[in-house]
């Protein structure tokens, strides 16, 4: 059974889970884990005196340079596949929007609040999926998205008080941009991952510079030497996270990948407890269980869906 144009292949594999979708979910989980660990190293760098904007800028510059060097060594131009130009523009704009919105939001509202607002994007993806991908809205997915979002809120434990509307709007921009990024990522299956990494980071670099200039928060490159290990690990985990995210989006739907990425703040919180000695409260454990439960249930639903497709295919042959 072939999938619709621009959608991941859902033909069942030998494991019972659709081969492409199963790999996509695995890559998404790896990406969420890498991003979550990256947040801890970003915290270490910030504690050493680096601004958040500078951390974001230098990590995207590093990945852009690596992508350019790999392309040069392989003698491959970062070409965009025919017919995927619009999707790639949307992917790059989404990356820039996440960078601008997320980094700017924390200037006006607490980081925990910005994280919770940002992670509304899986719910938005579920709601928009029938319009973007076709089909009907599955209530079970909406419940899972709400369950995962509740878990994220409990893990982060936001302190909602008097909030600056600018911070809320900017965090909302980041959420909308992530939604755009995930949907567009599923619509560029023929463009090589290397090209995507090249163009996405090229778009994010000026976004970081603009935010840093406006906020007056750009540090010179020499500052990176104050925490070389943290910066190196931050860059490495960011590279892994972006790679797995882009690879996942051509193998699974935006809904599946988006729900899996709700694990990112859970991983970040757990890693902070392990590496930084932060103490967790029972509500945070409950939140983590909700997120893990939502992702696991989504896996079971995909498994059941693949078996139904396999049965239907066998009956029609």
From TrEMBL:
InterPro entries: EamA_dom, EmrE-like
Occurrences of domain EamA (ranges): 23-156, 167-297
Sequence intervals crossing the membrane: 21-44, 56-74, 86-103, 109-128, 140-161, 167-185, 197-218, 224-247, 254-277, 283-301
Keyword S-adenosyl-L-methionine found: no
Listed GO CC annotations: membrane
Keywords noted in UniProt: Membrane, Transmembrane, Transmembrane helix
SUPFAM superfamilies in UniProt: Multidrug resistance efflux transporter EmrE
Keyword Zinc recorded: no
Cited PANTHER family: ACYL-MALONYL CONDENSING ENZYME-RELATED, SOLUTE CARRIER FAMILY 35 MEMBER G2-RELATED
Name of the featured protein: Putative permease, DMT superfamily
Organism of derivation: Saliniramus fredricksonii
